[in-house]
Each structure stands twice: as structure tokens, then as C-alpha cells.
């Protein structure tokens, strides 16, 4: 179906009030490069829509803090929120040596009871911290609060301060109550702020290689971060810290000592990239190690940034070698996937990144949407000055940072930097999702259940990529669906080898034999045998 | 795995829960509500709550779990969620057209004191549609309590007494899987009993693949049947923690007699249930059921040497843990550790009563409001031969290299389990197979070549 017609048809299903609210969240891409199009994003979800969005706590504890393996993260609140983020996101982590603690298999909660809500929970939180210290002797404690804590006014910052004084260890409080902001995004911001305030810039690890980077917004889902690290190491680039997949306290604390920040997921970590730029002079480069074309582009842009002939040569060697190693499989999958169409609804950057990977295999994306993005994630960073902050977002603190004496490093003169920016698209910039999408494709912000069902019916994509809440809805409806948050427990999907894994899994899902069994044979033809009356 | 857990004792803790064996009320409320036909569960709180609950149920059942939310922002948290609820009710009926919305609260809406009863008296519900609500603050009870809260809410607000007896049995199934619910229905069917089971998630969380997504699958208790519960002849509540409250509510409101019994897991508990069905129906136990029972006992005798005196640690929901412990005792095993995270004041007494019957009370430890960290520390101190419970125990099983059987909620890392019963004689047979396979696979793995048995 013509996509604009599909858009109208979906919107027409709404009552007038809802129509008005949802209309600007759904855009049919015009001519993306010529006319900038505006989309409404990062505003509150309408009650009762069956949204797939999560909350501030999920963004802070679940996404950004969860992967930091040597932090003992205590969730202050009733039991559920801690329980739901225990092992449910595939941010893999392993200790670097015997002495490094790995708390990833653990779940800590103050399990607040009615009395704690009535009389305050600070005392219980302190007791919980004392018990954790006695049992584990962690170097770092994170405190994450859930909804009731903010409402009853427990001062978790005071408890963090007390922990530092009482036990001489680092402790950071994250007031990430679920009702803050409009989605997970608020939680990313709160996590970013506290890491900047208390952790980054306090470490002593120095890079040993000529060129060093941090990898920001890589959560090591299914081992993506490790695959990216393998590639960068092959090129001779050292990763000092990953924020935060398989990340550690000491490395994140020392991340200001790296030469450059590579930003994989911009939405969840762009605040840190920006603030480190101001405080430490660290430039950031938007990279994308999902997809073959994107990975090559990212590696080359890193080489341009460092402007080292040896590195440039090595990067080209690695690209040739990696491409050779996947060549046969690449051709095999491309031949079989070309011409398919996809729709996807993921977080705040994957719906963009995976379009490139699909394009590598000849698959077009007919619909894409983000769960918790802001307008710039759709339209590009250039529109940031035009974004009006509403009341829900104003409540999330924006830190006012300044260069830090003795730690701020000037990398380039202003003109050299401007010069470099012309050569590197991703330097302090991302283009957003819409510019690369084909004319006529549909972009939806905060896609809800009704819209998912309708768009799939109207656009008939061959495959839908999303999360656990909609996966089985779509699959039950007869459309192939795969999870792009958890990769359906496969992966990694990053880099060259990851691209092949992804193509393998996609083809597997399209062709698994059970699809042919959905309709029983007796629905096609009668299995009853008998004689027609009189026919003897 | 779990390398940071101290191995030198069992730590005393009062404030910090580590690796919980329970979760919060609302997820239980959502599960119960989805067992009502054409019902949309609704979470009155931040949208993150229901996102987690849908995620969790979906991961356990590998099926869609639909539920809506009031999507609180900071403003709603300050000024109250009345306006959000009003919009939500309008949108849900408008867009998704359920017959009934089942609203539960969260720690957020409870802490700010949102009063659903007064909100709802001011909100218009479309003609012929229904709204049921219950209070499920996450800081009270657990998911089991929340399941009971929602079921009780349906009984309290929907059930009526018309005076025309239905002759039906009201069955409260406990927090169990669709496979268990089908097993109850099969057993009741064999007695020719007419029943209303509330909730009934069979046909919802085990709906077949047809190529068409049904927002409201064929399964679930019919609302009109819930209304008529007030005219039921009798009620049976399976599982004290999950089912006692709705049964009492029905008794209080409409004088429907009730009996509360443990989940029918194992031969003895199933005998109790089957006998109750026989009494209710006035029919003798049919041969087909007696045959199944005899088969299970036959297997128990055949395989006894693989179970005798083996120490088993069982954790999970209180009713399920007690049920599995009962079966383990019947097999000659020693349920040396029984743990639930949920609060249940009678848990230890129930456990002791079971153990006393086998003279094992002094050899076993049973505890409610406990967690898996404590279970792990205790296992380090006093090893067990088998671990039975939900997915999270796999960490302990790996750390201590213990044979592991998944049973209960949640099981997020295996398929098929929710289709198969743990209850009834069939369920007992299945559990015996799972447990004997785990124990015997371990014997096969660990024994020396010369002890490797071809026949076992």
C-alpha cells in the first residue's frame, strides 16, 4: 500500500482527540535530504494506548548502570523493579582478573515494606549498604531509587555521602524514579549526569597504545562490544573504557585519559560525550559498528581523525582481511535476502543502525520507529537548538559543566578542527534516522500496539524487528519477528562477523520449516473421503 | 558463577535482599486479569511498571501479554492520577474494545494515595462494559498476593447472587500455568462437574499459532460466569496463598461454602482434591482417574532407589514449594530446604506438618520471606542432591554443580513447560520424570566407566 495512505488509514482509526495527539508522531518520509521534516518525539505517552515504552528507572539502572560489573547496585524500593532488571538484559560482562568483582549475576534490593513507606526508608537503605559492605567489600556502590522513594522524600544523596564517609568507598545516588521524564530517556540522562559528576576523571589508568579511545553507548548485548573491541585491537587502537558494556569502575573513572570518544548509541550516552568534550576536550565521533558499510565507514573515520599513515594502512588491511573472511557467506545471504522488506521498532538508535545492516543485504526498511528518542535522533543534531523543552523534560537536570584545569587537553586548533569536521561526517554529529530512509517510508515515534498491528497489516513487511512485548503479537499474526534488544538470545551482531550472524538469524527466521505448518492440510483440501450421492 | 558469595557461613541480614525469590504484586494481578475472557489488565502507575510485567509474563510463557497503563508522569504523581485514568479508560475501550478492564494499583499510585473507588465513580464506562479494580501496592505481599488481590477483586465486584442456584463448582486454581488449569478442567470433566474456574489462563497463555493474532484469545473465564459465582454451590481454593482470599470473599459475600487445600501436586494432595471433586459431584472416582493414580504409584515403586534419601532444595512460590515438597516426601526424598520469598505466615507450620508425617522435621529448613542468596549459602554449608524451582536457581545449580529441575514461576530459559501440568496425577508423573532424569543423568555423567549402567 502507498505509505502515506497507510499513515492516514492508521490515524483514521483514532477518535479525534487521539488523532490530534498521534498525528505528529507519524511521518511519511518525503524527499529526506531536501526538505527537513519534523516529528513529534520525547513527549508523554497517552494513557491507555498500549505503549511499549519503559520508565526512567529502566533507562538508568537497566540500561546505563546495569552493565558496570564491579558496581554493587542497590535498588532502593519495593522488590519488583530490582527483580525485573536481574539478568533480563544481555549485557555480558566478565572479570578482567581475579581481583575484579563481577556483580552482574546478583540482584540487590531494599525490598521496602509498608512501614518503610510510612516512616521512611533511609534507615533500611543504610542498613542494606552496611550489609553489602560487610559481605562483599565493594569499591563502588550505586543506589537507584524507584517511584515511592522520591515521593516519600528519602534523601539518597545523603545516604551516599554517609557511605563514602563511613566506609571510605565511592557511592553514587541515582534518583531515577520511574515517573520522571516520559520514557527510559530521562534515566539515561540522570545516569550520565552522576557518572560525570562523581566517576569520570577520578581514575589513574593511562592508555599504553599510540591511539586510544573509549567506546560509549555500547552495552555489549550478546557480546557486541567484544566483537567491536576485537576489530579495534586488530587495527592497533586501544579501548580504554567502555560505557558501559562489560564496563568497570576504574576504567570509566579513567576514561578522560583516552584520546577520543566513539559513540555507538547516541541517545543513551550523548550527554557524557558532550560533557567530556567540554570538561576534558575529548572529541567524540559518532560510529556505528552495526552493518558492514557502517563498520567500514566508522573505522576509516577513526583513521582520518588520528591522521596516522600507519594506522590508516592497518585499518585498510583489517577491512580487506575481514571482508575476505566473510565474503562467501556474505554473498550467500545477500542473494537470499535481497528484495525482502523490514519494519523495525527499537530504542533510540538501533532502528537507525540496523537499517544500514539490512541494506547491506538488500533489504529495504518500510517502517522504523524509536521507543524513547528525541527529535534529533530522527532529524539530526542540527535541529537541537530548535527543540522546545516541555515540562516533563525540564525536570531532568542539565549539568552546567566547564573545562577542568589540568585535565582539559586541546587536541586541535579551531581551524584544524573545522577542517577535520569537513572530512569526518560523524565528528560531533549524527544525521538522524530519517535522512537515510527511502521516500515514502514511514517513521513512527512511540509506536503502540494498535499502530503496530495496523501498519503490519497495511505495509506487509517480510520481517518485523522489535522487542519482547510485541514479538509474539507479530509472530502470532503470521509475520516473522525477531528481537533487536536481545537478538533472540543469539549474536553478536556487531562488525563483519556479527553482520553474518544477523543475516543467518534473519534467514533462519524467514525460512524455518514450521512456517509451512501453520495452516493444517485439511484447510487446503478436504481430507474426508466419501462418495457423491448416486455416483456408484 | 556467583563467585562473590561468601562460602564461610550463612550471613544474617535484615535489610538487604539479594537474589529474591518473589516479585511485586502487580505482575500477579496482570496474570490473573488475563485469565478473564476479553479483559484488558490496566496498571495505574508509571508506564515502566507494566512494561516490566508484560516483559516478564511474555518471557515465561513465550506468548503476548497485553496490558495498558495510566502512564504517570511527574505531574500526575504530584496532582494525582485521576485524569490519566480517565483518559486511559476512554482510550482502552475506544481502541481495544475489551468487555472488562481490570485495574490494579502500583507502589506509585498507592503512595500518593490515589483512590480508585472514588475516581471510578466519576468516570463513565461504556454501556455493557465493566471495570474491576484492586489495590496492589508493591510494598505489600508479593506477586502471589497480587494474583489473589485481583481474583478477589473480581469476586467482590462482579459476583452476584440471583437466588437461582447454578449448581456449579467455583474453582480458584492458584498461581499455576495454563497446562495445570487444563489438567483441573480435565479432572473435573471426568466427574461431569460443571464449574467456573477463576481465573483461567488456558486458551490465553497457551493459545495456538493460527496465523491470526487475537488480542482476546478464545480462553479465559467468561465475565457472565463470574457474575453468577454468587449462585455457585461450593468453592474449592487450591493453594492457600493464592486462592484462599477469593474463596473467603465469595463465602462472606454470598455464603458459598468453601474448602481451601494445597495445590494438588503429588499423590496425596491430588487425592485430597480428587476426593473433594468426588464429594462435590456425588460420583465415585472414575476408573480412568484411579488408573492414572495407580500408574504414578507404580512408577514411584519402580524408581524408588534413585530418590531414596536424596536431599532436595525447593524454592519458589509458597503453594508450589509445599506441593513439590509433598511429592518429594512421597518419593522418599528429604526436602532439606524449602524457600519462598513471598510472605506466608503459615508457611513454616504447613512445611512442618508435611515433614512430621515422615519424621523429618528436624532435618529440614523451611522459610518464607527468604531469598536465593541465603539458599545458596545454606547449600554451600549443607549440600543437596537436587535443586527444584524457577529459572533463577540455575546460577546456584551451576555454581555448585547440582542437578536442576525447573518447576514453577518464572521459567524464562526453557520452552514447553507452561503447557505441561505439575498438578494432578499427570503432573506428578511429569515431575517424577523430570527429577529422575536429572538425578540419573548426573549418575551417568559422574560414574566411572566400570560403573556405567546400561540398565537402570
SSE layout and pairings?
The complex is a heterodimer of chains A (536) and B (456).
Chain A: H1 3-12, H2 16-23, E1 26-28, H3 56-65, E2 71-76, H4 79-84, E3 108-109, H5 114-119, H6 122-136, E4 140-145, H7 147-152, H8 156-167, E5 170-174, H9 184-199, E6 211-218, H10 224-235, E7 237-244, H11 249-253, E8 260-263, H12 266-280, E9 283-286, H13 292-306, H14 309-337, E10 341-346, H15 350-360, E11 364-370, H16 375-379, H17 391-394, H18 414-423, E12 442-445, H19 449-459, E13 463-466, H20 468-476, E14 480-483, H21 495-511, H22 521-524
Chain B: E1 17-18, H1 25-33, E2 39-44, H2 47-61, E3 68-69, H3 74-79, H4 82-96, E4 100-105, H5 107-111, H6 116-121, E5 130-134, H7 143-158, E6 169-172, H8 178-190, E7 195-197, H9 223-227, E8 234-238, H10 240-254, E9 258-261, H11 267-281, H12 287-302, E10 311-316, H13 318-330, E11 334-340, H14 347-356, E12 365-367, H15 372-381, E13 386-389, H16 394-400, E14 404-406, H17 424-446
Helix pairs in contact in B: 1-2, 1-7, 7-10, 12-17, 13-14
Provide structural commentary.
The complex is a heterodimer of chains A (536) and B (456). Chain A is globular, with a radius of gyration of 25 Å. Chain A has 536 residues and is an alpha/beta fold. Chain A has a 6-stranded mixed β-sheet, sandwiched between helices. A 4-stranded parallel β-sheet of chain A has the order 3-2-4-5, sandwiched between helices. Chain A has a domain at 56-178: Rossmann fold (3-Layer(aba) Sandwich), CATH 3.40.50.1980. In chain A, α1 runs antiparallel to α19 (449-459) and α13 (292-306) runs antiparallel to α14 (309-337). In chain A, 44% of the residues lie in helices and 13% in strands. Chain B is of the alpha/beta class. Chain B is 44% helix and 13% strand. Chain B has helices at 25-33, 47-61, 74-79, 82-96, 107-111, 116-121, 143-158, 178-190, 223-227, 240-254, 267-281, 287-302, 318-330, 347-356, 372-381, 394-400, 424-446; strands at residues 17-18, 39-44, 68-69, 100-105, 130-134, 169-172, 195-197, 234-238, 258-261, 311-316, 334-340, 365-367, 386-389, 404-406. The mean pLDDT of chain B is 98. Chains A and B meet through α3, α4, β3, α5 and α6 of A and β1, α2, β3, α3 and α4 of B. β3 (108-109) of chain A pairs antiparallel with β1 (17-18) of chain B, so a sheet runs across the interface.
Amino acid at each position: 500500500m502507498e505509505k502515506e495512505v497507510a499513515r492516514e488509514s492508521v490515524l483514521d482509526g483514532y477518535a479525534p482527540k487521539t488523532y490530534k495527539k498521534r498525528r505528529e508522531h507519524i511521518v511519511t518520509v518525503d524527499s529526506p535530504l531536501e526538505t527537513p521534516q519534523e516529528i513529534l518525539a520525547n513527549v508523554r505517552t497517552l494513557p491507555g494506548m498500549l505503549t511499549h515504552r519503559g520508565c526512567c528507572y529502566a533507562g538508568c539502572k537497566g540500561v546505563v548502570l546495569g552493565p558496570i560489573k564491579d558496581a554493587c547496585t542497590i535498588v532502593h524500593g519495593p522488590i519488583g523493579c530490582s527483580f525485573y532488571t536481574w539478568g533480563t538484559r544481555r549485557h555480558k560482562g566478565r572479570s578482567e582478573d581475579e581481583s575484579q568483582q563481577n556483580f552482574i549475576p546478583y540482584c540487590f534490593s531494599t525490598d521496602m515494606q509498608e512501614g518503610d513507606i510510612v516512616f521512611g526508608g533511609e534507615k533500611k537503605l543504610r542498613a542494606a549498604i552496611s550489609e553489602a559492605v560487610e559481605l562483599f567489600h565493594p569499591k563502588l556502590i550505586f543506589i537507584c531509587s524507584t517511584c515511592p522513594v522520591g515521593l516519600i522524600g528519602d534523601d539518597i544523596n545523603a545516604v551516599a555521602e554517609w557511605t563514602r564517609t563511613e566506609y571510605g568507598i565511592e557511592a553514587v545516588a541515582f534518583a531515577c524514579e520511574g515517573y520522571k521524564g516520559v520514557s527510559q530517556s530521562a534515566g539515561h540522562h540522570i545516569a550520565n549526569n552522576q557518572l560525570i559528576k562523581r566517576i569520570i576523571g577520578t581514575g589513574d589508568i593511562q592508555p599504553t597504545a599510540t591511539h586510544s579511545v573509549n567506546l560509549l553507548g555500547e552495552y555489549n548485548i550478546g557480546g557486541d562490544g567484544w566483537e567491536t573491541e576485537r576489530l579495534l585491537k586488530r587495527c592497533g587502537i586501544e579501548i580504554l573504557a567502555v560505557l558501559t558494556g562489560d564496563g568497570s569502575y576504574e576504567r570509566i573513572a579513567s576514561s578522560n585519559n583516552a584520546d577520543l570518544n566513539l559513540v555507538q548509541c547516541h541517545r543513551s550516552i550523548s550527554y557524557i560525550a558532550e560533557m567530556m568534550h567540554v570538561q576534558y576536550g575529548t572529541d567524540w565521533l559518532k560510529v556505528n559498528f552495526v552493518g558492514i558499510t557502517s563498520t567500514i565507514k566508522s573505522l576509516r573515520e577513526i583513521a582520518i581523525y588520528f591522521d596516522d599513515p600507519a594506522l590508516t594502512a592497518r585499518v585498510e588491511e583489517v577491512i580487506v582481511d575481514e571482508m575476505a573472511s566473510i565474503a562467501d557467506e556474505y554473498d550467500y545471504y545477500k542473494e537470499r535476502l535481497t528484495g525482502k522488506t523490514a519494519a523495525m521498532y527499537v530504542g533510540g538508535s538501533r532502528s537507525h543502525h540496523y537499517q544500514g545492516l539490512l541494506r547491506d543485504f538488500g533489504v529495504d526498511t518500510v517502517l522504523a520507529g524509536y521507543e524513547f528518542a528525541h527529535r534529533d535522533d530522527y532529524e539530526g543534531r542540527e535541529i537541537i537548538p530548535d527543540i522546545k523543552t516541555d515540562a516533563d523534560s525540564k525536570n531532568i537536570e542539565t549539568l552546567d559543566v566547564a573545562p577542568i584545569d589540568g585535565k582539559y587537553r586541546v587536541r586541535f586548533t579551531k581551524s584544524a578542527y573545522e577542517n577535520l569536521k569537513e572530512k569526518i561526517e560523524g565528528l560531533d554529529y549524527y544525521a538522524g534516522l530519517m535522512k537515510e530512509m527511502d521516500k515514502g517510508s514511514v517513521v513512527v515515534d512511540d509506536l503502540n500496539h494498535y499502530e503496530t498491528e495496523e501498519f503490519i497489516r497495511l505495509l506487509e513487511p517480510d520481517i518485523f524487528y522489535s522487542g519482547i512485548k510485541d514479538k509474539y503479537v507479530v509472530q502470532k499474526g503470521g509475520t516473522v519477528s525477531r528481537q533487536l534488544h536481545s537478538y533472540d538470545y543469539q549474536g553478536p551482531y556487531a562488525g563483519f562477523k556479527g553482520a553474518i550472524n544477523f543475516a543467518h538469524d534473519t534467514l533462519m527466521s524467514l525460512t524455518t520449516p514450521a512456517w509451512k505448518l501453520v495452516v493444517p492440510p485439511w484447510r487446503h483440501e478436504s481430507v474426508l473421503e466419501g462418495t457423491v450421492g448416486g455416483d456408484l | 558463577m556467583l563467585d562473590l558469595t561468601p562460602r564461610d557461613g550463612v550471613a544474617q541480614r535484615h535489610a538487604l535482599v539479594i537474589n529474591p525469590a518473589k516479585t511485586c504484586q502487580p505482575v500477579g494481578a496482570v496474570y490473573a486479569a488475563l485469565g478473564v475472557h476479553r479483559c484488558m489488565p490496566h496498571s495505574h502507575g508509571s508506564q515502566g511498571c507494566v512494561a516490566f510485567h508484560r516483559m516478564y509474563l511474555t518471557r515465561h510463557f513465550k506468548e503476548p501479554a497485553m496490558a495498558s497503563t495510566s502512564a504517570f508522569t511527574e505531574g500526575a504523581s504530584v496532582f494525582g492520577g485521576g485524569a490519566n485514568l480517565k483518559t486511559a479508560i476512554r482510550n482502552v475501550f475506544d481502541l481495544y474494545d475489551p468487555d472488562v478492564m481490570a485495574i490494579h494499583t502500583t507502589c506509585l499510585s498507592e503512595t500518593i494515595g490515589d483512590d480508585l473507588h472514588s475516581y471510578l465513580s466519576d468516570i463513565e464506562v461504556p454501556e455493557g462494559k465493566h471495570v474491576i479494580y484492586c489495590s496492589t501496592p508493591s510494598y505489600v505481599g508479593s506477586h502471589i498476593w497480587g494474583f489473589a488481590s485481583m481474583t478477589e477483586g473480581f469476586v467482590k465486584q462482579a459476583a452476584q447472587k440471583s437466588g437461582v442456584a447454578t449448581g456449579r463448582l467455583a474453582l480458584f486454581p492458584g498461581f499455576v500455568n495454563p497446562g495445570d488449569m487444563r489438567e483441573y478442567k480435565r479432572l473435573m470433566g471426568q466427574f461431569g462437574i460443571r464449574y467456573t474456574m477463576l481465573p483461567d489462563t488456558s486458551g490465553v497463555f497457551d493459545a495456538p499459532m493460527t496465523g491470526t493474532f487475537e488480542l482476546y484469545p478464545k480462553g479465559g473465564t467468561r465475565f457472565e460466569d463470574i457474575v453468577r459465582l454468587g449462585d455457585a454451590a461450593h468453592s474449592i481454593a487450591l493453594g492457600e496463598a493464592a486462592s484462599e482470599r477469593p474463596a473467603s470473599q465469595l463465602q462472606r459475600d454470598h455464603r458459598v461454602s468453601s474448602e481451601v487445600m494445597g495445590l494438588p501436586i503429588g499423590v496425596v494432595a491430588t487425592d485430597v482434591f480428587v476426593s473433594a471433586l468426588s464429594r462435590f459431584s456425588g460420583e465415585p472416582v472414575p476408573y480412568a482417574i484411579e488408573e492414572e493414580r495407580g500408574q504414578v504409584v507404580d512408577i514411584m515403586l519402580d524408581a524408588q532407589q534413585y530418590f531414596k534419601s536424596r536431599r532436595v532444595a525447593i524454592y519458589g512460590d509458597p503453594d508450589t514449594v509445599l506441593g513439590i515438597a509433598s511429592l518429594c516426601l512421597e518419593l522418599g526424598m528429604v526436602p532439606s530446604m524449602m524457600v519462598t520469598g513471598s510472605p506466608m505466615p503459615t508457611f513454616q507450620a504447613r512445611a512442618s506438618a508435611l515433614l512430621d508425617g515422615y519424621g523429618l522435621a528436624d532435618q529440614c529448613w523451611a522459610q518464607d520471606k527468604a531469598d536465593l542468596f541465603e539458599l545458596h549459602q545454606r547449600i554451600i554449608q549443607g549440600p543437596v542432591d537436587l535443586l527444584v524451582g524457577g529459572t533463577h536457581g540455575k546460577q546456584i545449580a551451576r555454581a555448585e554443580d547440582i542437578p536442576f529441575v525447573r518447576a514453577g514461576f518464572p521459567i524464562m530459559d526453557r520452552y514447553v513447560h507452561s503447557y505441561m501440568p505439575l498438578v494432578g496425577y499427570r503432573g506428578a508423573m511429569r515431575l517424577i520424570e523430570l527429577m529422575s532424569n536429572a538425578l540419573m543423568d548426573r549418575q551417568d555423567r559422574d560414574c566411572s566407566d566400570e560403573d556405567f549402567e546400561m540398565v537402570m
